[in-house]
Amino acid sequence: MMPGGRFESGGAMRVLSRQSFQDMPWANGGGRTCELFRLPHPDRRDAFALRLSIAEVAEGGPFSHFAGVDRLLGLLEGEGMELSLADGRRLTLDAPGQVVAFTGEIGIQCRLLGGPLRDCNLMLARDWGRGDLERLSPADGETARLEAADLVLLYLQRGEWSRDGEDLPSGSLLLLENEAASLRAKGGAIAWLATARRLPA
């Protein structure tokens, strides 16, 4: 594992603690981002192939521009936000667990529907791969089954999680490469699942 949660090829499931995340305040003072994981782009220096982060948004404003990137944004906590896109579309997140998708190039203005919120942001370089983002909220004692993919990231937002009888720290990030997994959940467990599939060479 490289510093800052950067991935090197490997086999078994890995667990990243909060101490490995990178916390960054926004230059405009409107919030802060906690980068959970960044996968460097194989062909472009200083670019990412995949990035997963959690943002604390204190006020509305414009979104940053990310050329060549596809984005998926999910609401973790808060009353939500409305996104006004430059092409005239409006996307609304007003319930935790909702996810919207858009390109990183398009101009976006964000308006908060209430107070501060937290969101989960998955970004993928379009020339590297495709991905999905969803919230998991299994019932108490239920088993959550993760299907194998090129890369699977699971952010344990809250509750109690375990695998094969071993407890997993709440707030940590699980990484799996081409491996399925089954996790036991209880205590109002919630997690965010990001899956990525590399484009064929």
From TrEMBL:
CDD domains, per database record: cupin_HutD_N
InterPro entries cross-referenced by the UniProt entry: RmlC-like_jellyroll (IPR014710), RmlC_Cupin_sf (IPR011051), Uncharacterised_HutD/Ves (IPR010282)
Stretch forming the signal peptide: none
Pfam families (UniProt xref): HutD (PF05962)
Protein name as annotated: Various environmental stresses-induced protein
Lineage, top ranks: Bacteria, Pseudomonadati, Pseudomonadota, Betaproteobacteria, Neisseriales
